UniProtKB/TrEMBL annotation:
SUPFAM superfamilies reported in the protein's UniProt record: ALDH-like
PROSITE patterns in the record: ALDEHYDE_DEHYDR_CYS, ALDEHYDE_DEHYDR_GLU
InterPro entries recorded: Ald_DH/histidinol_DH, Ald_DH_C, Ald_DH_CS_CYS, Ald_DH_CS_GLU, Ald_DH_N, Aldehyde_DH_dom, OHmuconic_semiald_DH
Pfam family, one: Aldedh
Domain of life: Bacteria
GO function terms (MF aspect): oxidoreductase activity, acting on the aldehyde or oxo group of donors, NAD or NADP as acceptor
The family this protein is said to belong to: Belongs to the aldehyde dehydrogenase family.
Organism: Paraburkholderia fungorum
NCBIfam families the UniProt entry points to: OH_muco_semi_DH
Active site annotation, chain numbering: 255
Protein name: Aminomuconate-semialdehyde/2-hydroxymuconate-6-semialdehyde dehydrogenase
Residue ranges of every copy of the Aldehyde dehydrogenase domain listed in the record: 18-483
Keywords of this entry: NAD, Oxidoreductase
Amino acid sequence: MSSCPTLYRNYVDGQFVESARRFPNVSPVNGAVIGTVCEADASLVDRAVSAARAAMHGPWGNTSATERAKVLHAIADGIEKRFDAFVAAEVADTGRPEHQARALDIRRGVQNFRTFADLAAQAGGEYFDMRAAEGDIFSYTVRKPHGVVAIISPWNLPMLLLTWKVAPALACGNAVVVKPSEETPGSATLLAEVMHEAGVPAGVFNLVHGFGVDSAGEFLSTHRGIDTLTFTGESRTGSTIMKAVADGVKEVSFELGGKNAAVVFADCDFDKAVAGVMRSSFTNTGQVCLCSERVYVERSIFERFVGAMKERAEALRIDYPNADGVEIGSLISHGHREKVLSYFALARDEGATVVCGGGVPRFGDERDNGAYVQPTIWTGLPDSARCVQEEVFGPVCHIAPFDSDDEVVARVNDSRYGLAASVWTRDLSRAHRVTRRFDVGIVWVNTWFLRDLRTPFGGTRLSGIGREGGRHSLDFYSSLTTICVNP
């Protein structure tokens, strides 16, 4: 099999499957067609779900956690052996700087399989004893897989976020049907190849390509044969999926959008704060659910901070993914660029001061056919402005001054989202006081995007439902039965 296939096939019941209905995979770097994707119809999705359910009634359904851990480590070994191919697929689909995909995305994919393999193998049940009229009674819990897990993953960090769900689902003994984003079929298809080569039993891992409405996404989320569903993506899509699974009262886990805040106090390490907010605003061209689109800076250092951000943002190198020193790649697609550019125009209409950026870079070569935009900084908007309230999901941030702890806490929480925040200060006592008041799932102090995989992750409000990570993932991808014994 090719390391970076030009034909992306579905993988169902241990076999790679082509389909008559296909769509192009387009490079966001130069607009060229780099592959063709086989779209799964309703009958193929049904075959995938049926294969997963059959696998649960076969040997896989009776494997021990230790046996499954060996399988997950074999999958991790397979990814490592094809590391460069995964990097190439990820970069081709996303336009992401190659050094970022190499340092983070694929390594995290390997780490996800190894981490959850070991966690599941070591996770025991609970034991309780009590004295009752009947005598000494004891109870214990047994962890069991749900069955068939539907996994719908996004395009912004395809390999990282897909394996974040597949690994614990398999570790808990489930079978999965995966639908990656139509924008990023490459790494998911390669993962299917690794599963095949690692000897994962037929039906345990299934891959269907397609879109959302009236395509694989809708067919999968509405299928009666799935037992639970996990989704990462846009909040509106999450709402649609929730309605689709409501009749079956299926358990769901949603990691959705964010309009995250960074808070910079005057006593911060100034250079580290600037570097940290630059990273949290512009990493992956701002296409990370955890990126900071709202930045609040204590008034005494506001002008200095804005000036430093402007200087750094204007110096960011926008280039090919594999260029030396590249810092900003393309957006995922021309369609997404139109969305981001519409917010650039809206910000001007709302009265923003455009500190830098706000347009499309020009290269004079094939990159002008790509989906690039300039890193952009705004100031001067009220908190009620749409550009401060709505997720842009591009390389943009709005910087505003604040005067007190109570004020900035209220402004951070003035959002329909509640995913993440970051605080930059040397006063850790204040950091502890302030961060516990933020209505978000995770807060960083003097850092960003650093997380122990064993800790819980998830958001509040429009940012999602549930927590995953470590034992929290094991709790979502399995169910507990309590057994009470009277000896």
